[in-house]
Design a protein that fits this description.
The protein is an alpha/beta fold. It contains six helices and six strands. The chain has a single domain, classed as 3-Layer(aba) Sandwich (Rossmann fold), CATH 3.40.50.
Length: 160
């Protein structure tokens, strides 16, 4: 699936604010969003989540792009802002260390990232090429009905 296709699916599903921290697995998506003037770069994941909360308050449907190692950097913001005050956002997370395959620095977070999301009651799904549109719609619908962050996990090779 191309990055342009994925961005179009997100846009067609009503997502209209994009921020995050650069990552090689998300580079194609970030490049497309940047070329379209839709992406606001952030230096840290917690800052990106904060910007997404502000965008939500301004009537936007936000997406935060990050590597799963950044999940640890933004847990406090997610739990003390988004979850407490019902501020939804889509966390589009590249899953480094998935199934124990990656550089050593990614293996621990790769093993525990979904358990961390479960612990703080953020639902997540692993994106597959054949179900991507369904996964995006699930995330949007869940965000809108429950007003909570939702995570879509992306492994290497799903998006060009």
């Amino acid at each position: 699936m191309t990055s342009t296709d994925v961005v179009q699916m997100l846009v067609d599903s009503g997502f209209n604010f994009y921020t995050g921290v650069p990552d090689t697995a998300l580079a194609g998506l970030i490049a497309v969003l940047t070329a379209q003037g839709r992406y606001v770069s952030s230096v840290r994941e917690d800052e990106a989540v904060g910007m997404a909360a502000g965008a939500f308050l301004g009537g936007k449907q936000p997406v935060v792009l990050m590597q799963n190692s950044g999940l640890g950097n933004c847990l406090n913001v997610l739990t003390s802002l988004n979850l407490i005050y019902s501020m939804p956002c889509l966390l589009l997370i590249s899953w480094r260390g998935y199934q124990g395959i990656d550089a050593p620095e990614h293996l621990v977070m790769g093993e525990v990232c979904t358990r961390i999301l479960e612990t703080v009651s953020i639902p997540s799904r692993l994106i597959a090429i054949d179900s991507l549109q369904i996964d995006i719609e699930w995330a949007r619908d869940h965000m809108n009905s429950r007003r909570t962050p939702v995570a879509l996990m992306l492994t290497q090779g799903v998006v060009e």
